[in-house]
Every structure is written in C-alpha cells, then in structure tokens.
C-alpha cells in the first residue's frame, strides 16, 4: 500500500529511515533480477538485431524490474527530501530551545541547584589556622577545596 504525500510527511524521522531502508532493499532485489537476466541492467537491449525479443532473457521480468526500480528511485528521492526537512526542523527546534535557555540565563532566570551545606562553623579558636582564614561570624560551608562557598 502506497502512502500519499500527506501521509509521508506525518511519519517520524525514524519511520522515514525505515521506509528508506525498505526501498533500498527492494531496489537491490530488482537489480538482482536484472543481473540474473543476462546482466541487461537498466539500459541493456531487450531485442536482438532482427527486432525479436531476446530468447536468453525473460523480457517481462526485466521490464517489470526496470519499471519498479524507476518507481522506487522516485520514492527514495521523496523520502530523502522528507528526511532532510525533518532533520532541519529538529535542528531548528533545538536551536530555538537553546536560544530560549540562554536568554533566560542572560536575564538571570537560570535555575540553579545549590549544593547542600555539609558543615557549620560555630566556633573558631584564636591562633588556629582557621582564625586567620575567616572572620569570626558563623559560616556555612558547602565545599572544601581550592574553591568554596560561604553562606
């Protein structure tokens, strides 16, 4: 059952890729028929020098395979065009989404998940390394490393 152009455009990119693969498989099968018929291919002669059908090939099978290949080439071209359009659409939507996210960040709307505090300093002994490093007001530390955040 063939799909109308409107039905083709409703398919997802994955379904279109599956359809493309099926078309290519059928085209290979038709090419095999042509090769098995004396290697006539798409352009080989179907009649002898006197104008009679060649006795070494099945002319009907060759004509049928050639016709099917031509139809499949058209379908393949249409599917590839739709796949390209769908990919452009997906990339455009992704760019818009990323653009909206970056605009939100520029306006300060970024949602940040702040790390949970793991220690609260309630007392610092005079003369200790901590006494020279921080002021005496009580701090909440969320990281210990070269960088830390005091809240």
Please describe the biggest sheet, giving its number of strands, its sense, and whether it closes into a barrel: 2 strands, antiparallel
Number of helices: 4
Chain oligomer state: single chain
Low-confidence regions: 145-149
What's the count of strands? 2
End-to-end separation in angstroms reads 67 Å
Give the averaged pLDDT, no decimals. Answer: 80
Question: Could you explain how this protein is built, in words?
Answer:
The protein has 4 helices and 2 strands; from the N terminus they run H-H-H-E-H-E. The chain has 151 residues and is an all-alpha fold. It has 2 domains: 5-106, no CATH class; 113-151, no CATH class. A two-stranded antiparallel ribbon has the order 1-2. The radius of gyration is 35 Å and the shape is rod-shaped. Keywords: Proteasome.
Keywords:
151 residues, 2 domains, two-stranded antiparallel ribbon, 4 helices, Nas2_N, 26S proteasome non-ATPase regulatory subunit 9, PSMD9
Short description:
With 151 residues, the chain is mainly alpha-helical. The protein is 55% helix and 3% strand.
Topology:
Elements: H1 5-10, H2 13-36, H3 59-106, E1 119-120, H4 129-133, E2 140-141
Antiparallel strand pairs: 1-2
């Amino acid at each position: 059952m063939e799909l109308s152009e409107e039905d083709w455009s409703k398919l997802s990119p994955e379904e279109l890729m599956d359809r493309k693969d099926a078309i290519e498989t059928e085209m290979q099968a038709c090419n095999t028929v042509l090769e098995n018929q004396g290697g006539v291919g798409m352009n080989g002669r179907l009649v002898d020098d006197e104008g009679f059908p060649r006795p070494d090939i099945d002319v009907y099978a060759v004509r049928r395979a050639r016709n099917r290949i031509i139809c499949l080439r058209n379908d393949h071209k249409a599917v590839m065009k739709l796949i390209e359009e769908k990919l452009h659409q997906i990339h455009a939507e992704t760019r818009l989404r990323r653009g909206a996210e970056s605009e939100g960040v520029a306006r300060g709307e970024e949602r940040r998940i702040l790390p949970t505090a793991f220690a609260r300093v309630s007392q610092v002994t005079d003369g200790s390394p901590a006494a020279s490093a921080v002021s005496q007001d009580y701090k909440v530390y969320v990281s210990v490393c070269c960088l830390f955040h005091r809240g």
